[in-house]
Amino acid sequence: MEYAIVVENLTKKFGNLIAVNNISFKVKKGELFGFLGPNGAGKTTTINILSTLLKKTSGKVYVNNFDVSKKMDEVRKSIGIVFQEPALDNRLTGRENLYFHARIYGMNKEESKKRVEEILKLVELEDKADKLVMYYSGGMKRRLEIARGLIHNPKVLFLDEPTLGLDAQTRRHIWEHIKKLNKEKGITILLTTHYMEEADFLCDRVAIIDLGKIVVIGRNDKLKDSLGGDTIELIVKGDKKSFVEEIKKLRSVKKIVKNGKGKIRIIAEKGETLLPRIIREAEKTKNKIISINLKKPSLEDVFLHYTGKTIREESVDLKKEFMKRRMKMRRH
Ligand SMILES: Nc1ncnc2c1ncn2[C@@H]1O[C@H](COP(=O)(O)OP(=O)(O)OP(=O)(O)O)[C@@H](O)[C@H]1O
Ligand SMILES: [Mg+2]
After folding, report:
1. Which of 39, 54, 189, 251 is most buried, judged by most C-beta within 10 A?
2. What's this model's pTM, rounded to 2 decimal places?
3. Cα angle at 190 between 204 and 185, to 5 degrees?
4. Which residue, judged by its Cα, is nearest atom 12 of ligand 1?
5. Tens-digit pLDDT profile for residues 90-121
6. Is the CB of residue 19 below 6 angstroms from any atom belonging to ligand 1?
7. Structural domain tally of the chain?
8. What letter would DSSP give residue 127?
């Protein structure tokens, strides 16, 4: 197996604070890997170490087989990075931003021009290329930043919160671009996010990170399956007792609860394979199905299961803390 990124026992301390606490993970070539975690979890710190912008305290990190502490130039040439904070020059046009970046990366004039046109096309900004960036929308700026990160044809792209602060529709548009880069261009991507839907839609695998530690790591579907099963909720009318008895006998059913008024809740592995069976058993036992609903665990459920809290709770706490501090400052 060839890996694009190998991290072993990585730790980063800022004074007494352990921002990244002994984490290990590997990203395969061509993979779209996500770091999912709340504010302050250590996502940006990790990306900064992987891209040589920050020195680690201890551990081993290899990117494209280069040791990030020893082969910094090689690492930098082989990666692209899009920062959490916008980093474009607003007084230049989109095309100029890209052109200067290409030149900084050592491409000659001809090469740079050619590459800029290619990459503008890739992110569909050709017709906006000569506008000043200050007149770009949030989504256009993000696409331009991604384009800039790709100018030197990197094998690995780091995206730190690629859709932070964008509206739902623009976010979806950016997702399509990211997917395309990964699937069609074969670029290995490591992204960070605290949006569940983003990690769920984009990533092959995710690491859930909280307080500097990787709490759990795996394929999205496997993580969801690890919670013990899907929930099927149904409402039936008829001889419920014999229906429930029959369902109980099925091997994949783990739990069945009657909630009164014909409501039945079934916890089962691979719920979708059970649906036809449920319908058949209902017919056999002379029950009429009024409604049926299959719910797969979400990444949100996975996060809650492994960290004991929701990502949203965390953000609300931070917001409260922020407001408190602001009030204090006003009083002084
Ligand atoms: N240069 C620094 N000096 C001191 N502490 C830092 C520094 N950079 C980050 N930290 C701290 O390290 C921890 C991890 O920060 P980091 O920026 O990596 O989190 P994050 O997961 O990217 O969060 P967010 O979702 O808010 O971007 C936080 O507690 C932060 O305050
Ligand atoms: Mg961050």
Report:
1. 189
2. 0.83
3. 75
4. 19
5. 999 999 999 999 998 889 999 999 999 999 99
6. yes
7. 2
8. G
